Amino acid sequence: MTTPSTHLTVPLWQLAHGRTGDKGNRSNISVIAWEPALYPLLLEQVTADSVARRFSHRQPSRVQRFELPQLRALNLVLDDALDGGVNDSLNLDSHGKALSYWLMDLPISVPAALQPLLRRPAK
Questions:
Q1: Among 95, 103, 24, which Cα is nearest to 57's?
Q2: Above 50 in pLDDT, residue 78?
Q3: pLDDT at residue 58 in the model
Q4: Is residue 119 part of a domain?
Q5: Taking a C-beta distance cutoff of 8 angstroms, is the pair 20, 99 a contact?
Q6: Where is the AtuA-like ferredoxin-fold domain (predicted)?
Q7: pLDDT single digits (tens) 52-72
Q8: Residue 96 has pLDDT above 60, yes or no
Q9: Contact status, residue 37 vs residue 114, Cβ threshold 8 Å
Q10: Which of 1, 18, 89, 101 is the most exposed place for a label (fewest CB within 10 A)?
Q11: Nearby residues of 16 by Cβ (< 8 Å), 6 or more positions away
C-alpha cells in the first residue's frame, strides 16, 4: 500500500495569474494569487533568486521582488532582460509580453490539502 504524498508539484499558473509590462530594457511581471490561502506559497517560492534562475537565458542583471499583500500579489522587476528594449531589440517579443507565460510554468510545491483551490486546465 502506498501513502499519499503530502505535497504535489504544479505550475505556478494553477496558483496565480500574471501580467507583464516593460519600460526600456526592464521587464515588470506581476503575479497575483487566485486565492488568499495560496499567497504564502508565492511568498515562499517565487523569490528573486528563483525568478533569476527561471530567466537565466535572458541574463537579467538584477531581479527585484516587491510584495503587495493587500492584493495578494508580487511585482517582479527584471533589469536588462529585454535585449535592449523595443527600439534596440531584434527579438520578436521586444516588449517581453510573453515573459509572464514563461514564469507561469515555474514548478511550485503545494500542500495536498490546498489542491481544491488550484485552477485546472480547460477541458
A1: 103
A2: yes
A3: 82
A4: no
A5: yes
A6: 10-108
A7: 999 898 889 999 999 999 999
A8: no
A9: yes
A10: 1
A11: 31, 32, 33, 34, 38, 42, 104
CATH number at 76 reads 3.30.70
Cβ of 108: how many Cβ atoms within 10 Å? 22
- Is 62 part of any domain? yes
Question: pLDDT tens across 97-119, in order?
Answer: 678 888 999 999 999 999 999 99
Question: Is 121 domain-assigned?
Answer: no
Mean pLDDT value of segment 11-29: 87
Rounded Cα gap, residues 47 and 117, in angstroms: 22
Residue 1: all three cell numbers together: 500500500
Question: Number of structural domains, the chain?
Answer: 1
Range of the domain at 71: 8-106
Decide if 16 is inside a domain: yes
Residue 5 is predicted with a pLDDT of: 78
73-79 and 26-33 as β-strands: parallel, antiparallel, unpaired? antiparallel
Strand 7-11 to 107-111 pairing: antiparallel
**Residue 94, pLDDT score:** 42
